[in-house]
């Protein structure tokens, strides 16, 4: 069996169906004797360019080990599912199990946001900010 990295984009109106789709696809792979090494739901993101007049999509990434038969069946599911607006399948040399760069960047962003917001809530610096804003209006 070979290792693959699969990314598929789901139409934003169908975002609530992503859980069921992922469950169906993982079941398809595992029933054929394959393994899911990594599953990441990146959520709704802005597209680089519009696809069928859609500007956002729900991104999902899978790193799997499966047979060619299971991969062909998965490709057919992507092709005939109108909710999947794009997909990309890349063959990998080995299983990838660590967190992707996309999720690492998202976590770093949220940690920085928390650190930035924390000092504002604990000390009285908010009062000086509001004073400087009112002076700017005068």
From TrEMBL:
<comment type="function">
    <text>Binds together with bS18 to 16S ribosomal RNA.</text>
</comment>
<dbReference type="GO" id="GO:0003735">
    <property type="term" value="F:structural constituent of ribosome"/>
</dbReference>
<keyword id="KW-0694">RNA-binding</keyword>
<dbReference type="InterPro" id="IPR014717">
    <property type="entry name" value="Transl_elong_EF1B/ribsomal_bS6"/>
</dbReference>
<dbReference type="GO" id="GO:0006412">
    <property type="term" value="P:translation"/>
</dbReference>
<comment type="similarity">
    <text>Belongs to the bacterial ribosomal protein bS6 family.</text>
</comment>
<keyword id="KW-0689">Ribosomal protein</keyword>
<feature type="compositionally biased region" description="Acidic residues">
    <location>
        <begin position="126"/>
        <end position="138"/>
    </location>
</feature>
<keyword id="KW-0699">rRNA-binding</keyword>
<keyword id="KW-0687">Ribonucleoprotein</keyword>
<protein>
    <recommendedName>
        <fullName>Small ribosomal subunit protein bS6</fullName>
    </recommendedName>
</protein>
<dbReference type="GO" id="GO:0022627">
    <property type="term" value="C:cytosolic small ribosomal subunit"/>
</dbReference>
<feature type="region of interest" description="Disordered">
    <location>
        <begin position="97"/>
        <end position="138"/>
    </location>
</feature>
<dbReference type="InterPro" id="IPR020814">
    <property type="entry name" value="Ribosomal_S6_plastid/chlpt"/>
</dbReference>
<dbReference type="Pfam" id="PF01250">
    <property type="entry name" value="Ribosomal_S6"/>
</dbReference>
<dbReference type="InterPro" id="IPR000529">
    <property type="entry name" value="Ribosomal_bS6"/>
</dbReference>
<feature type="compositionally biased region" description="Basic and acidic residues">
    <location>
        <begin position="97"/>
        <end position="121"/>
    </location>
</feature>
<dbReference type="InterPro" id="IPR035980">
    <property type="entry name" value="Ribosomal_bS6_sf"/>
</dbReference>
<dbReference type="InterPro" id="IPR020815">
    <property type="entry name" value="Ribosomal_bS6_CS"/>
</dbReference>
<dbReference type="GO" id="GO:0070181">
    <property type="term" value="F:small ribosomal subunit rRNA binding"/>
</dbReference>
């Amino acid at each position: 069996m070979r290792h693959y990295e699969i990314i598929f984009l789901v139409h934003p109106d169908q975002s609530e169906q992503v859980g069921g789709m992922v469950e169906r696809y993982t079941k398809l792979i595992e029933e054929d004797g394959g393994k899911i090494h990594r599953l990441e739901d990146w959520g709704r993101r802005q597209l680089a360019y519009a696809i069928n007049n859609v500007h956002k999509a729900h991104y999902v990434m899978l790193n799997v080990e499966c047979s060619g038969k299971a991969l062909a069946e998965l490709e057919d599911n992507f092709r005939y599912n109108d909710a999947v607006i794009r997909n990309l399948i890349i063959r990998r040399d080995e299983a990838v199990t660590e967190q992707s760069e996309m999720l690492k960047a998202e976590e770093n962003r949220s940690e920085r946001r928390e650190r930035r917001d924390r000092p504002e809530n604990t000390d009285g610096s908010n009062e000086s900010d509001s004073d400087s804003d009112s002076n700017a209006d005068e």
